Amino acid sequence: MRAMVWESRFEGRAPVSILENFNSSIAADMFLFGAELRASSAYARGLATAGLLTRKELAAILGGLAAIEERGRNPEAFRPFEDVHSAVELLLIEEIGEAGKKLHTGRSRNEQVATDERLYLKDEIPALIGAAASVQRALVGLAEQNIEIVMPGYSHLQRGQPILFAHYVLSFFWAVERGKERLRDALRRVDVLPLGSGALAGSTVPLDREELRKLLGFAEISENSYDVVGDRGFVLETLFALALLLLDLSRLAEDFVLFATAEFGFLEFDPSLATSSSLMPQKKNPDVFELVRAAPGRLFGRLAQLFLAVKGLPSSYNKDLQEDKKPLREGVEDARLVLAAAAASLERVRPNRERMRAAVAPNLFAADLADVLVDRGVPFRDAHAAAASAVRIAEEKGGDIASLTADEWAAIHPLFGKIPEDIFDPLASIRRKKTSGSTHPDKVRLQIERAKVLLT
Ligand code: ARG
Question: What's the CA-to-centroid distance between 295 and ligand 1, angstroms?
């Protein structure tokens, strides 16, 4: 039989263990234990300020909460309770007696859950942002150490134009940066104090909520008690921000898995992030990147789970909201693990400069050839058509545009005349990109500088 804070409501209640276990959330909400102790200590101080606790009672409660913190090391001790909130209250009463019975004056578990979850995320979101920054540091390192490597840039998974490998790698830096921004933005809405909302209508205790806000380090105070006890938007948007962050990393992971194939051969992985086969001894499998690729599915699943639990709920608190614990905790912990694994893997990737250079085939300069004609006064659409015929004619001959003779070029367009010497030089092509944010080496160096500023 579990100990409940509301036991006296029913007389001669015959507990049915399957139902008590079903109702209980203690197995899922112990991760809020630290937050619950902080929130309870702040609440006790608030009660004292409001004149509902004597100095002695407050001291007893604060001492008792500290003692319970010790007992938290043994989760077994918490098994018999309904949830972490009632466990702390009942253990406090056990610990200090009468004064403990006053802690819940004017308070509800509905506001405690919301407060604890927000306190938890106020710690976790900055840690997650830090973990994302480690991924970014690894990306900048990879880009900076290989600044002169060229590779084909792809769209539709077809070779498009030459780019710097560093430009490619940094493309993920900015995706992760947006992920960090989303988390920071979510944190703004997390950083709101619910305590003082009571069950749904507010508290009869004249609590100084500003004092509670300061004690718990919240940026703001919720405006509506009815709203804040039922709101889980802050959990959902945090999970979404994490899911999207992992979604971006899963695209990197898929690229890397592909780039490590014998067919591409662009990347080599340190054996520490690979596995081999129990049967095929030659295998070097990119397991870690495959798992990073799979990870957003789990996050999305948790997001969907909570989304659907909230969908169609009546406003204010409903027990369905108890279901938010697992998606919240597991989502946060999972994302942190994936970010750490991604960062550690990125530090152990070696690009193969020769293979990437070899993949920059002459046809990737077709757009550069159109530009040659544009420079010589031909309208772009005509220049594009001429370069396209060059590709087609070369293809018909079974080759690429580097195999065309001077006569053939002249026949395709008289202004092709003399093709610039460096037209099939990847770096020359890359240097012709002039815009900010382009793959031009100077612009890529600027990107690296800006990235580093963002990381300091
Ligand atoms: N264990 C509950 C939860 O996590 C705490 C709030 C319960 N409130 C209530 N009125 N039964 O949501």
Answer: 30
